[in-house]
Amino acid sequence: MASSLAHHFYLISLLFLMIFFFQPTLHQQLCRKDEHLALVQFKDSFVIERHACANPFAYPKVDLWKFQGIDCCSWEGIQCNQYTGHVIVLDLSSSCLFGHINSSSSLFRLGHLQYINLAFNDFNYSEIPLALGNLSRLTYLNLSNSFFHGHVPSEISKLSKLVKLDLSFNLDYSYQGLLELKGSDLNTLIHNLTKLECLDLSSVHINSPIPNALANLSSLICLRLIQCGLFGKFPTSIFQLSKLEYLFVGGNWGLTGSFPEFQFSNPLKVLSVTNTSFSGEFPSSFGLLSSLKHLEVQNCHFSGLLPSSLSNLTDLYFFSLCNNSFKGSEVPFLSNLTQLRHVALALNQFTFSEIPSFASLIHLHVLDLSYNLVTGQFPSWLVNLTQLKWLSLRWNMLGGQLPSSISRLKNLVVFDVGFNNLSGIVEFDTFIRLKHLKALSFSFNTLSLQTKIVTNGTIQKFVELGLGSCNLRGFPNFLRNQDQLWILNLSSNKIHGQIPKWLLKICPNLWFLDLHNNFLTTFEESLNVIPFSLLILDLSYNFLTGSLPIPTHPMLMYNVSKNKFNGEIPPQFCSMISPRFLDLSHNNLTGVIPKCFGNLSKSLSILNLEENNFLGTIPDTWAIGSELKVIKLGHNNLQGKLPKSLVNCKTLELLDLSNNQIKDTFPSWLGALPQLKIIILRFNGFYGAISGVESDLLFPNLQIIDISHNEFVGPLPMDYFKRWKAMVNLDGKNLTYLQADYSIVVNIVAAPYHVPYSMTITNKGVTREYAKIFEIFSAIDLSCNKFTGEIPKVVGNLTRIQLLNLSNNILTGPIPPVLGFLKNLEALDLSHNKLTGRIPSQLTQLNFLGVFNVSYNYLTGAIPKGQQFNTFESSSFDGNVGLCGMPLLKKCDYSESKALPPSLTFEEDSGLLVEFGWKVILLGYGCGFLVGVVIGIIVFAKRQ
Fold first, then answer.
1. CA–CA gap between residue 33 and residue 226 (Å, rounded)
2. Mean pLDDT of the chain
């Protein structure tokens, strides 16, 4: 009995002790009334909107509070101090909140908050409240992806205990950043936040260099400064931060820098400098980054060989070097990186004689070697990488046939071997077996695609089909069932007749359609309006007739060139919102050019209306802020004067108004266009003298000018010759091509486009067209005018030019010996003038001179001998009764072997233009060389 009482007494005592010791905890589970009220008022200041839930897994946390009792410490997203009851954590991320917030919000009555996460809501363009600076206990602040806008307040710098600060990706609906932070404020911010471990200011407009003070944040583990408008040199000391594991600075095109020599203890796990101007070579010490898992350096300016020490990065699973200038014939180190899931080496200069063996990379999901110089056969071992989901070998030089064993790659989602030299017959049935396959491209090989396969019901639904140049003779019947297509390329086949009505109806989401270079004649059903989803349409190089198809409002690219469309441009073209490329050239269109095209220039990069029958004047509505790089209005019936509003097209590189009836004086005011490289005004009614100029800034980048076949008079424009600096030397130029570069954004993704310029040269009835023009090419054609006086000596300074045509004028005086300085000259035509004196012997030093014509002048004396002069025919010298010597039949009175040596000397230069070798240039004997632009989209078309 006593023991039983003792036992009960023990239990009662124990209960009292528990109540005594845990009484504070039990009591404080109820949050403070003032903070409870503050939370309720905070909740009530917003509404719940599904559109505010960017995250598909988002849910309105505050809606659950009413089911979770009166203790706010137990509410979803709330945590309290277990001893004081103060709210210390507020996590309402992805809670579908919509509304405004400011410094009067009840949130700021929660003075003990240490953690705030309001990411992925919609605060409706509110400014970040200044009162945040009063929450001095904060260690974590996340306001990302929540539609905050305005200036980042300096009050945040007061939060000296912050460990993480995330203000990233506050974007509007056009994906433009809403927040800004001045460079000086960034310096102040990081100066006070010395405990930061993670800083993310992605998409905040900083627009300044990165302050060196960032390297003083010794606790920094994660740094994300994506798309901040940063420029200048990246501080290399940041790479040496002893705790830095994650570094993202992509999307800052003005940011330069290179990789330093890394230390053995460097903890970097993720390194991304994509879309920057980082350059140089990879140091061999890159192999010391033994913790590196993710390396992303796409769209930079890196070059050279990849160091073999990369084989030490055995934890690497993501490896992307796309769009740089890396080179090499092998990358053996990759076979050692067996954890790799993603390998992307596209758009470099690798010259693999065969695809490197990645047979050991059994976990590989993505392999992209596109746009390189890979030769050899399609490797059989590739079919053993059964985890592959993405395989792109596009734009290489692979030959042979595709093996049927590709069907073993059961997980393939993307398969692209377009633009190679593959041959043979491809059975479409092989790819039908790959049930996960969504994107398939064979375009532009020498393949024949067999599509008479199984019934439509067994075929998977594709998102992309690239069947260009696959020897198709009709629209494949299986397409009738492809209602999920986004991209369809059937270009350069042998498809005749009508475009079937079902093609444009079955695919409600089709945004890219390329049918160019076929034998199409009509639409089966009249196409009054293009389907609304289409953003990019190419019907060029067909035989289509009738009225122009009416574009959709959001259309970005519209190309119907080289057809037989007729009638006027429909007014609906003026309703296009932001077109980038518009080509109606080489049709039978009539009427006037709509004035609205000038307003469209705010988005247009390319406008090509040449080779039609347009009448009237050129619109004078070219908008301030124009994005145009190419305007081609040649070969029409346009009249009047040049509109002065063209001076608003500050990005213009090429202007072609040839073969019209424009009557005006020389448009010297076009010289204010800083990017203008090519101007073509030939075959018009331009008149008057080209007077002197005072500005040194006229035509600073002009390298090709053709004003032939006009009515210009007076002396040659010596003042302009002095100012055409781009024709003086080749500094900074290389063997790249002249082209218009622009991008098209579809579904947030920016796709780059390159429209190469081409040149046509016509003489004696022979026309040569060059698909591309090297950037180093330069030419002057002032022929078939009424210029008088002597050829000014200053022409000898234009050492870059390859073509010079001054024929069919009234020029007098001698041929200046300084023309011998034009060491790159390939064609020189001075025929049909009144030149006198001897042919300067200095011209024999023009080693690249392939065409020379001085016929029908008053030249005298012996024709110089040697070098290229030994190759010219007698017709080059006809009509000069005073000339003698080879190749003329008339002999000179003195020995030709004693011709004086040239008094000028030149450096040897082997930099001949490939396209303009002298053997194929036919410049002489007539007026003019034709300079033109043939628009070709090399991303989508490969002319063969």
1. 42
2. 86
**Please, what are the averages of pLDDT over each run of 10 residues along the chain (944 residues)?**
46 42 46 92 92 80 87 93 93 95 95 96 95 96 96 93 96 90 80 94 94 92 96 95 96 95 92 96 94 96 95 95 93 90 94 82 94 89 92 93 90 94 90 91 91 64 94 91 92 94 84 95 79 88 94 92 96 92 96 92 92 96 92 95 95 94 95 93 95 76 93 94 86 67 60 67 49 82 96 94 94 96 93 96 92 95 91 94 93 60 38 30 35 30 34
Residue 887: count of CB within 10 angstroms of its CB: 14
190: part of which helix (H) or strand (E)?
A: helix 183-192
**Which residues lie across from 366 on neighbouring strands?**
342, 390
861-863-866 Cα angle (round to 5): 145
Spatial separation of the C-alpha atoms in residues 690 and 717, rounded to whole Å = 6
Strand partners for 788: 715, 810
Beta strands in 52-168, from DSSP E residues, in sequence order? 78-80, 87-91, 97-98, 115-117, 140-142, 150-151, 164-166
Q: How far apart, in whole angstroms, are the C-alpha atoms of residue 645 and residue 130?
A: 46
At 407, which amino acid appears? S
Got the DSSP string for 419-446?
A: SS--EEEEEHHHHHT-TT--EEE--SSE
CA dihedral defined by 298, 342, 325, 290, rounded to 10 degrees?
A: 90
- Which residue carries 């009638």 as its tokens? 567
Residue in the structure block whose two tokens are 């070219």 = 622
Task: Name the pTM for this structure.
Answer: 0.80
Classify residue 885 by its DSSP letter. S
- The letter for the amino acid at 381 is W
